[in-house]
Amino acid sequence: MPPTLLSMTREYVYDLSVLRGHCPPKRFKVWYIVGQEESRSLMQYLRRIPYSSLGFRFALVSLLFNLAVESSMIFLPLRARELGASNLDVGLIAATYGLAYFVSSFIFGRRSDMRGRMVFIRWGLALSALAYITQIFAPTPMILLAARGVVGFCVGVSAAALVAYVYEAGAKVGSFASFGSLGWFFGAVMAAATRDFEALFITSTVASTLAFLLCLTFREERVSRIKVALIPVQVIWSNRRIYLPFFLRHMGATAVWSIFPLYLSGIGASKLMIAVIDGINMGGQFIAMQLLQRFKPSRLFTIGLVSSVLVFAVYGVATHYLQLIPVQIVLAIAWSGLFLGALNHLLGRNVEHGTAVGMLYATTSFSGALGPFLGGSISQVWGFPAVMYVSSALSFAGLLASRGLATKKSHPRKE
Fold first, then answer.
1. Which long-range contacts (CB under 8 A, 24 or more apart) does 320-323 make?
2. Confidence of residue 313 (pLDDT cuts 50, 70, 90)
3. Which of 67, 173, 284, 294 has minimal CB crowding within 10 Å?
């Protein structure tokens, strides 16, 4: 430990002993604010944490980042309904989040290729921590819609830069993503334990703050800055067999997720069981991603699309929530294959890591903006089962659009 930090620690212990009456109060102090020199010493010490612990820190940041996202999202349709929202309003609230995430991911994924990763990772996490707490103060569906828009934009600032940073540091993207799913799982556990909207929003703020503090121990890697076009047409076109199928499948998926708690509630599930069913999916993803990351990306991507077609079709015929428990395990495999396959394919084939991954997140969030509107509209007119069948059909269309992916070369595209 650095001498300055050691001295600071000893004095702090001494002052605590004074407060407890164990020694004379000769130097009665309380360190409310640590001086600038000591703060700098502390940060230098944190940055000297052995490199062997980097993988653990990556995993923890991924867990906290996604814990924050899931804690705010899992009961959001129920919160909106409590505030007087219709099915269509619920879809619009989710769509606003997705649209804001789309804009942010598109802009800052590209900027991270040009300006470096850490500034966007840290600012994104810090702003997200502030944005999550605003959801507590939303008294109407429209104000909740605005709050979710702010959250989506802030989360998108750091998402693509974080994945690119992990890949460039030599860590396994599959393991990083699997701990993200574990974060979703713990978010579902928190929801099951509290069943309180305000407590979950506070959990999101705390988790994002901890992720931000942990990222202060990361160093900016010295990688070459890349000039990327304002509209990266070449990146989009060369990866169209990833982006278009992902868009179609995820639009169907988010149409389902926007009304999923209401759908489960309608077939007998309590708040606790909604969280449990969601948690099975998230916990299954953690295991599936660890096991699947060794396989060929194009094969994983195809497995994800085929499994999605089956899962959403089964949702449409279910009559009781317990029937969905085994289906959630298949869903975990479907998403793990789709997401890991897409990430590894894009990172392996493109030199613009931030842009390529940012476009994937932008695709995800744009479909996330359209999907909830689709889900809310269809359910308002034809009911929940119709949403499931449409989502299955969209996944099948994505499967057709991905044809030829396995024949593409896997080396990085050169400029």
1. 320/267, 320/268, 321/264, 321/267, 321/268, 321/269, 321/273, 321/277
2. very high
3. 294
Count the neighbouring beta carbons within 10 Å of the beta carbon of residue 6.
12
pLDDT of residue 225: 66
Domain layout of the chain by residue ranges: 3-43, 49-407
Cβ count near 335 (within 10 Å)? 23
Tell me which amino acid residue 145 is: L
Counting every residue written for the chain, the total comes to 415
Architecture of domain 49-407: Up-down Bundle (1.20)
Give the pLDDT band of residue 26 (cuts 50, 70, 90).
very low
- The kind and range of the H/E element at 397 are helix 384-401
Using DSSP, state whether 360 is helix, strand or coil. helix
**Cβ-contact 177, 281 below 8 angstroms:** no
Write down the pLDDT at residue 5: 35
Measuring CA to CA, how many Å separate 333 from each of 291, 317, 327, 371?
Answer: 10, 20, 10, 21
Confidence of residue 51 (pLDDT cuts 50, 70, 90): very low
H-helix or E-strand spanning residue 311 = helix 297-317
pLDDT band at 37 (very low <50, low <70, confident <90, very high): low
Q: Would you say the C-alpha torsion 373, 374, 377, 379 has a positive or negative sign?
A: negative
- Tracing tokens 């991603």 back to the chain, one arrives at 289
Q: Which residues have a Cβ under 8 Å from the Cβ of 66 and sit 6 or more positions away?
A: 179, 180, 181, 182, 183, 184, 187
Listed in sequence order, the residues at least 6 apart from 16 whose beta carbon sits closer than 8 Å to its beta carbon are: none
Residue that the structure tokens 């317990």 belong to: 322
